């Protein structure tokens, strides 16, 4: 049985370290593990691979992989793999949502605190050697406590559930939106609303966090109309996917102070183009898709993937299986 590991990314951290495949080979001697950091000439390895660990696979490459039974993506988002041939096949697709959940949730909380305490403004004043206590207090909305504030979570998956627990522990009131309301309220969540009631969540929330999967229903989810529903002193945070927020509408809402502030970690185009109006928004905190970066990334990947690999070899149901029709 052959396991093919192939990942090529411009950021070094996202590339699979050499020890990963070597350790799998030692732990699972019944497997033939092939690890590559380039897609060049990959077709010869695809032909007899039963399991593929990858972030990208084109339809023509998928057509070559006649023995393929399972694809594992070391990402939470898998929209890049959901082409018709794969969706309609019997190949199982799993993702790494549980790998990224803990660190992204920490990032969300850091952004909430940064916006509430005006940390970006303080950093700018520091660079100018300005003692800005009075200016920071007078600028509306002023410095705030998050205790008692309402957090609206769009998406209650791995990230959303962890954010809910952390926010609740910090004294926030947490409400959420999820597709399947019948799944109930996760720990720390006061109320759960269906997607049709999103506007009600936006009206109540002091902080809105987008942490939903990217699919047709969530593409352009936060547009001008939705921004108009939010409180004037509310803040928007996006750690989901860039296309879920209308960049132009958000830039205008920030410029006119329709909402107080925003923090974005993901963008429709990455890297964010130099001519994007978002760069000039004084009330916007930009982090360059760093929410999921951590020195624990690959040990955590190994733990989750090796657990699923043991299940696969034992003929047991896999964890973190993606519903290919729904996209998550």
Q: Which CATH first-tier class of the largest domain would you pick?
A: Alpha Beta
State the distance separating the first and last CA atoms.
27 Å
**Overall structural domain count:** 2
The count of β-strands is 12
How would you characterize the overall build of this protein?
With 328 residues, the chain is of the alpha/beta class. It has two domains: 2-98 and 294-313, NAD(P)-binding Rossmann-like Domain (Rossmann fold, 3-Layer(aba) Sandwich); 101-286, 3-Layer(aba) Sandwich (Rossmann fold). The chain is built from twelve helices and twelve strands. It has helices at 18-27, 43-46, 59-64, 84-87, 97-116, 119-127, 133-138, 158-169, 198-204, 224-229, 247-255, 297-313, and strands at residues 2-6, 32-36, 51-54, 70-72, 92-94, 150-154, 173-177, 191-193, 207-210, 235-238, 261-264, 284-286. The protein has a seven-stranded parallel beta sheet, sandwiched between helices. A five-stranded parallel beta sheet has the order 2-1-3-4-5, covered by helices on one side. Helix 4 links the parallel strand 4 and strand 5 (92-94). Helix 5 crosses helix 8. The longest helix has 20 residues, at 97-116. The two termini are 27 Å apart.
